[in-house]
Automatic annotation (TrEMBL), chain A:
Cellular component aspect of the GO annotation: plasma membrane
CDD domains: TM_PBP2 (cd06261)
Stated name of the protein: Binding-protein-dependent transport systems inner membrane component
Membrane-traversing stretches: 46-68, 108-129, 141-161, 193-214, 246-265, 297-320
Record keywords, A-Z: Cell membrane, Membrane, Transmembrane, Transmembrane helix, Transport
UniProtKB/TrEMBL annotation, chain B:
This protein's UniProt keywords: Membrane, Transmembrane, Transmembrane helix, Transport
TM annotation in the entry: 31-56, 96-117, 129-152, 172-199, 248-269, 281-301
Localization of this protein: Cell membrane; Membrane
Organism this protein belongs to: Haladaptatus paucihalophilus DX253
The family this protein is said to belong to: Belongs to the binding-protein-dependent transport system permease family.
Domain of life: Archaea
Gene Ontology cellular component list: plasma membrane
Gene Ontology terms describing biological process: transmembrane transport
Domain ABC transmembrane type-1: 92-301
Name the record gives this protein: Binding-protein-dependent transport systems inner membrane component
């Protein structure tokens, strides 16, 4: 290794011109080497075991899950994987199940409302925090703090915040004489999902803020100068110059927030148990209830595949775009 | 960037610093800005503050005082903390036994994989990269049923039976081993991505020089890449530790229900109930106890966490 370090040092200090000059020929040498000593083969022990482990648990499991969804695996009876016995019966049942459509609608509402509001709120936070304030790090840390907590913990906090009799929200309203504002936040079907979304925004808007802060600081000076010369107002400046420049930040934050939203299962499970009721049932909770509560394994697997396809529809364009921009 | 805006250091200028050059900022609007900032602090900390206050209150004080007021005089008690700690302690131990190996394993494997694909020259890596990265975005519901099936087919407890005779080993650790395997496997995509974005910025020249010297792929990793990876390991370990510690779903599926002894702290917290009267003090104390490890990690390494999250 000493040799390598010496060479590195020479290279960095620019002494070793010959090394760079014959760089091209060495590459040719490498190509004519035997396959066994090639870098590709040498790299296999590094990436192949993690790839196989991850591949088995992710793609293998999804494949297995898909096959299970084609069986009628229920209770403790084992699935029959006989080719002739596989069919799309579970999907037919699923699409005829009104509960499924309610859950699918709630999933979409949760995804769109949570992601959208988090982005808007995160952007506002970022603009405020970016106003050259004192103790910026402290404010930023506090706003990001809820993100370090688990869904189980945040669900415990919010279940209590929303409690009708002794919860902080209602008690605060009552103590200001605003009794009419006190409400059954998480029992009333009309406010249930909104209450969940609000708590999730509390937990994750700090994340959107961090991403937008990084984006704001990456905007080159000239863009601002140009707008200033044009005599744009602050509002116009933000709307016409800043926000469009933050497109990349928006996309990356949105994708990650959607992943968080898909994992909101933990939150709902702690708050409502297996039965969030139709107003807050999402596909994730429905899947868990069907598979692990009622032991309708095949039916649960079919819901899982629908959820997977939904995720794929969001992620594939994103990954393709990242690939095209050379960011992957 | 908490200093005064007087310093004309271009690196340190924020957006609004530039905005302010054209928009006259009055001291009133400046004061208003801080009012908003502190209102936001209140918004983010209110549930936590009220939670702490409640956890220290007797049932009587709970019924008679406002949630966010501190417990006064007789109203103060440590009872909730004592009960919660008692009920959660085996969960805390299990979570540590689970999170530490799972975190280290997934970070190490992620680093291996990212190095083997990013810094070693071979073509057609992109499909493999795409498969790794797409793994981050799969909804876990799509793998739950097979995961549960797998661990009923593969009986880790029987496979490792010689281990259970050793001191300090329990048969229920087999459940934790299953969880460690699952968390490691599902952690690899994100650790891969974190390390890949870091390794891509390594200068080609540096690694090329080592290659020309005849260093093997392994020795380059061991002697150059690994020592330089320390900052990224810090970020990845923090991130993964938080993820594994906070997980509920895999634990629900992989740990057989009713086997209280191997349940991690999230499951124990979810099952925490205060008997007939629902005691919010107990729930809040339990929530804080379960959150302490990630809060410590976050407060100590918060800045690195934020950077890692942003990248």
């Amino acid at each position: 290794m000493q040799r390598i370090y010496r060479k590195l040092k020479r290279l960095v200090s620019g002494e070793d011109e010959s090394l760079r000059a014959d760089g091209g020929t060495t590459v040719e040498h490498a190509e004519s080497e035997s396959l066994l000593s090639s870098e590709f083969v040498q790299s296999l022990p590094f990436w192949l075991p993690p790839f196989l482990l991850m591949g088995f648990f992710v793609y293998g499991a999804i494949g297995w899950n898909f096959i299970i969804s084609l069986t009628d695996f229920e209770t403790f009876q084992l699935p029959t994987y006989k080719l002739s016995a596989l069919d799309f019966e579970m999907y037919r049942q699923l699409f005829n199940d009104p509960g499924f459509w309610t859950a699918a609608r709630n999933t979409l509402v949760l995804l769109v409302a949570f992601t959208g509001l988090c982005l808007v709120f995160g952007l506002i936070l970022a603009i405020i925090v970016d106003r050259d304030i004192r103790f910026e790090n402290t404010f930023r840390t506090i706003y990001l703090l809820p993100m370090s907590l688990s869904f189980v913990v945040t669900a415990k906090f919010w279940a209590w915040m929303y409690n009708f009799n002794s919860g902080m929200i209602n008690v605060t309203f009552r103590s200001f004489g605003l009794d009419f504002l006190a409400h059954q936040w998480i029992s009333d079907p009309t406010t249930k999902l909104a209450a969940v979304i609000f708590a999730l925004i509390w937990q994750f808007s700090g994340y959107a803020m961090v991403v937008y802060l990084a984006g704001l600081r990456a905007i080159p000076d000239e863009h601002f100068e140009a707008a200033r010369v044009d005599g744009a107002s602050t509002w116009r400046m933000y709307r016409r110059v800043i926000v469009p420049q933050l497109r990349a930040s928006t996309v990356s934050a949105a994708v990650v927030l959607m992943v968080f939203a898909l994992k909101a299962f933990d939150f709902l499970y702690v708050m409502f148990g297996r039965q969030p009721g139709p107003a807050a049932d999402i596909l994730a909770t429905m899947m868990y209830r069907e598979a692990f509560g009622s032991l309708h394994w095949a039916y649960g697997s079919a819901i899982a595949i629908v959820l997977f396809v939904m995720a794929l529809a969001v992620v594939t364009p994103y990954l393709y775009n990242e690939y095209r921009r050379g960011e992957l | 960037m908490s200093g005064t805006p007087a310093a004309p250091d271009p690196e340190n200028r924020t957006w609004t610093d530039r905005v302010r050059r054209s928009v006259r900022t009055t001291s009133t609007s400046r004061a208003l800005l801080y009012v908003v900032l502190f209102a936001l602090v209140a918004f983010y900390l209110a549930p936590l503050e009220a939670g702490i206050m409640t956890a220290f209150k007797t049932q009587n004080a709970f019924n008679t005082s406002l949630p966010f007021f501190p417990p006064l005089g007789d109203g103060f008690t440590l009872e909730a903390w004592r009960v919660a700690l008692d009920k959660l302690q085996s969960g805390l131990v299990n979570s540590l036994l689970l999170a530490i190996p799972a975190t280290v394993l997934s970070a190490t494997l992620g680093s291996f994989a990212a190095y083997g694909i990013t810094n070693v020259d071979w073509k057609y890596q992109m499909p493999i990269v795409a498969l790794f990265v797409a793994g981050i975005f799969i909804p876990y519901q799509a793998v739950l049923v097979p995961l549960a099936r797998l661990f009923t087919i593969v009986d880790t407890q029987a496979l490792l039976s010689p281990l259970w005779g050793l001191p300090f080993m329990h048969e229920y650790y087999a459940n934790l081993i299953n969880l460690i395997i699952a968390h490691t496997a599902y952690g690899i995509p994100i650790t891969f991505l974190l390390f890949r974005s870091y390794y891509r910025n390594f200068s080609d020249e540096m690694l090329e020089a080592a290659r020309l010297d005849g260093a093997s792929v392994f020795s380059i990793y061991r002697n150059i890449v690994l020592p330089l990876s320390k900052p990224m390991f810090a970020v990845t370990l923090i991130y993964q530790f938080t993820q594994v510690w906070n997980d509920l779903l895999f634990a629900l599926v992989i740990i057989p229900s009713g086997s209280g002894s191997s349940a991690p702290v999230t499951v124990a917290l979810n099952n925490l109930s205060g008997g007939i009267i629902q005691s919010f003090g107990l729930q809040m104390a339990g929530a804080f106890i379960a959150a302490i490890p990630t809060l410590i990690v976050y407060v100590l390494f918060g800045d690195q966490f934020a950077k890692g999250v942003a990248s």
